[in-house]
Amino acid sequence: MSEKPAILELKNVNKSFGPIDVLHNISLQIRRGEVLCLLGDNGAGKSTLIKVLAGVHKPTSGEILMDGKTVSFDRPSAAQERGIATVHQFGGTFPLMSIGRSFFVGLEPTKGWGPFKIYDRKRANEIAVKAVRDFGITRIDDGDRLVGGLSGGERQSLAIARAVHFGARVLILDEPTAALGVKQAGHVLRIVNEAKRRGLAVVFITHQVMHAMAVGDHFAVLIRGAIAADFRKREKTREEITDLMAGGETMADLEAEIEHELHA
Amino acid sequence: MTEAIKSLLRRPEAGSILSLIGVVLFFVFFGGVDLGTLLGAASWVNFAANLGIVAIPVGLLMISGELDISIGALIPAGSMTTAILSGYYDLPIAVGMAGALAVGVAVGLVNGLLTIRTSVPSLIITLATLVAMQGLVLSGSVLLTGNASVAVTAPEWAKFLFGQLIGGSHQVIIVWWVVFAVIIGFVLHKTRYGNWLFAMGGDRVSARNAGIPTNRMTIALFVLSAVSATFVGMCQAILFNSAQVSGGMNFIFNAIVSVVVGGVLLTGGFGSVIGIFVGTITFAIVSQGIYFTQIDRNWSNLIIGVMLLTAVLMNQAFRELALSYWRGSKQSVPRAPIQH
């Protein structure tokens, strides 16, 4: 295994909602400068797992460690303060707000004093534009333009740049490429690599094996709430991963089954 | 110059400004109105000020993704509270005024708390408080005073501040409206709280995740709109020396029309105070200015309907323009001159 220290670690985490067990005994290490790809079919527990990491849900049992110390997040903001940022499928941005304004939502720079503290539009725009351009999105040059005018990939990039700017150490990307075309997805994958290069720990949730293999260092396959496989880059082929995601059945078995049903 | 026009068109208030120009031109050319007489008239300005003080907070709520129609019952509630306390019971006018504003705070809190605690849309919640307050005001008035109309006489200072007719024609509430619009405009467009409001209307969950106190903001907005409505009622009682339990229902639709003409997006996240202000003026000119034209006043609602649709379509088009400005700008990169 890698010698890099784990920023975030899950130890035997279980989560149940009433009588329904959603996560069983999850143990994972999320390291600095690495991309952990979380793979799994719909309903495998991926979104519950990221909600546990992001402080939305508390684990029923088990431990979350940050920099080796046990932590407990009561609210999403508690996780955010520790540097865990989640970017959702659609970027969580506001289409009818300007780039500068949406970049700084909740953390607006101000100038002036007392009741006349005003939002510093110029500074917000400058910082926001620079932050996105540093990630290689050079088409963004005016912070007054509306977020809704950006492409899906650019919106994702804006959201990632925002998280990094505000000091994220762990970046959770929830299906960032799911709704994007090939070119746009490539955009986002480049930015994931850039975040990794800057030493962030990235958790990349996807069910597109190709996208995972393009950026991942470490892979975990989730099946019915448990980790079915945990392996490093180049330890498994694309076919093996796809088969794992399909629930352990090989794709060939599945094809045979469908064939059989069609003839029946 | 053309760049300045284009940049104006991308702003939320573009549609309302064009609507206002359109309505005035229509009145001048087809109504034969004298522009000087129209602009000098007090009736539409008084109408706009009373409506505008309510329309601004209703617009803020709409930007944040909520709606408040209980204002329709709170205007008579404000005037009746003032008249019953200071007229019927003969308490100092300050007590009546404080009572009116307190009613606003109380109903605003109920609206706000119910909105954040339940998943019921605020339209339904405020519809319920609207009807409930109507009942409460009517039965309360009959129970306490045995009447549905109560007289009140305000002392000089209260008349001066809230019920004066400037120059014998313009209600002093116009000043309150302009000051209120300037303050709220500053807060919405120049402070961080304004940014929070737009974010809430754009995506409430993301806004909350970004650390914005969405619940406290929502309650504050409902309190503001309810207090504004009782304030208008209070001013009317002081001006007219009497209060009635009826009236106020027109304010609901009038305020919503003004806000929507003003370029606020019904689903939230987009709008401006200048837009709401101009939208209110436009609405007031159509409904009151028509008396100065040769057009029969029965047509005024038709004009309002057509204007509403036109303004909404314009706002839609301008919003598209603001969004596509990005893509369009790519083509404006200078190209190499074509060789002949």
TrEMBL record, chain A:
<protein>
    <submittedName>
        <fullName>Simple sugar transport system ATP-binding protein</fullName>
    </submittedName>
</protein>
<dbReference type="InterPro" id="IPR003439">
    <property type="entry name" value="ABC_transporter-like_ATP-bd"/>
</dbReference>
<dbReference type="InterPro" id="IPR050107">
    <property type="entry name" value="ABC_carbohydrate_import_ATPase"/>
</dbReference>
<keyword id="KW-0762">Sugar transport</keyword>
<keyword id="KW-0547">Nucleotide-binding</keyword>
<keyword id="KW-0067">ATP-binding</keyword>
<dbReference type="GO" id="GO:0016887">
    <property type="term" value="F:ATP hydrolysis activity"/>
</dbReference>
<dbReference type="GO" id="GO:0005524">
    <property type="term" value="F:ATP binding"/>
</dbReference>
<dbReference type="InterPro" id="IPR003593">
    <property type="entry name" value="AAA+_ATPase"/>
</dbReference>
<dbReference type="InterPro" id="IPR027417">
    <property type="entry name" value="P-loop_NTPase"/>
</dbReference>
<dbReference type="Pfam" id="PF00005">
    <property type="entry name" value="ABC_tran"/>
</dbReference>
<feature type="domain" description="ABC transporter">
    <location>
        <begin position="8"/>
        <end position="249"/>
    </location>
</feature>
<keyword id="KW-0813">Transport</keyword>
Automatic annotation (TrEMBL), chain B:
<feature type="transmembrane region" description="Helical">
    <location>
        <begin position="95"/>
        <end position="116"/>
    </location>
</feature>
<feature type="transmembrane region" description="Helical">
    <location>
        <begin position="299"/>
        <end position="318"/>
    </location>
</feature>
<dbReference type="GO" id="GO:0005886">
    <property type="term" value="C:plasma membrane"/>
</dbReference>
<protein>
    <recommendedName>
        <fullName>Xylose transport system permease protein XylH</fullName>
    </recommendedName>
</protein>
<keyword id="KW-0812">Transmembrane</keyword>
<keyword id="KW-0472">Membrane</keyword>
<feature type="transmembrane region" description="Helical">
    <location>
        <begin position="70"/>
        <end position="89"/>
    </location>
</feature>
<feature type="transmembrane region" description="Helical">
    <location>
        <begin position="44"/>
        <end position="63"/>
    </location>
</feature>
<keyword id="KW-1003">Cell membrane</keyword>
<keyword id="KW-0813">Transport</keyword>
<keyword id="KW-1133">Transmembrane helix</keyword>
<dbReference type="Pfam" id="PF02653">
    <property type="entry name" value="BPD_transp_2"/>
</dbReference>
<feature type="transmembrane region" description="Helical">
    <location>
        <begin position="123"/>
        <end position="145"/>
    </location>
</feature>
<dbReference type="GO" id="GO:0022857">
    <property type="term" value="F:transmembrane transporter activity"/>
</dbReference>
<feature type="transmembrane region" description="Helical">
    <location>
        <begin position="12"/>
        <end position="32"/>
    </location>
</feature>
<dbReference type="InterPro" id="IPR001851">
    <property type="entry name" value="ABC_transp_permease"/>
</dbReference>
<comment type="function">
    <text>Part of the binding-protein-dependent transport system for D-xylose. Probably responsible for the translocation of the substrate across the membrane.</text>
</comment>
<feature type="transmembrane region" description="Helical">
    <location>
        <begin position="165"/>
        <end position="188"/>
    </location>
</feature>
<feature type="transmembrane region" description="Helical">
    <location>
        <begin position="273"/>
        <end position="293"/>
    </location>
</feature>
<keyword id="KW-0762">Sugar transport</keyword>
<keyword id="KW-0997">Cell inner membrane</keyword>
<feature type="transmembrane region" description="Helical">
    <location>
        <begin position="218"/>
        <end position="239"/>
    </location>
</feature>
